Amino acid sequence: MPYLDPYLMNVFRSRICNPACFRRVYGVLRSFRYEHLRDPDGAGAMVDQLSAVMGVPVTAEQRANAVGWLMQCGVDPANPYHQRRMWELIKGF
Q: Domain boundaries in the chain?
C-alpha cells in the first residue's frame, strides 16, 4: 500500500512555512486537476515539480509511494473541500 514518506512530509511541512516557497508550491498544486492525479504520469509530474520547487531530492521508491498515494486518495486540487482536507494533512491534524 502506498504511503507518504514521514521524512519527506516533515520537510514539506517545514519548507511550506516560508512564504516564497508556499507561493511556488501553491502554484504547482493549482496547476493540476483531478484527472491528472488519477494518472501515474500526471501524479508523477506533480511529485517531480514539488521536489524541484522545494529543492528536495526524491528517491525512486519515495516517488513511487507518493505517486501511488496521490492516485489512491482521489483529491481534486480545484475543489475547496479537498483543499481544506489536504491543508489539515499538511498541518498535521
A: 6-91
- Alpha-carbon distance 82 to 74, whole Å? 9
C-alpha span between 10 and 40 (Å, rounded): 24
Query: Per-residue pLDDT tens for 43-92?
Result: 999 999 999 999 999 999 999 999 999 899 888 888 889 888 888 877 76
Question: SS3 for 28?
Answer: helix
Torsion, Cα 85 87 92 93, to 10 degrees, reads -40
Give pLDDT tens digits for 19-47: 888 899 889 988 999 999 999 999 999 99
Which grid coordinates belong to 67? Answer: 505517486
Strands (E), 9-89: none
CB neighbours of residue 27 within 10 Å: 11
d(CA 62, CA 50): 13
**Whole-structure pTM value:** 0.86
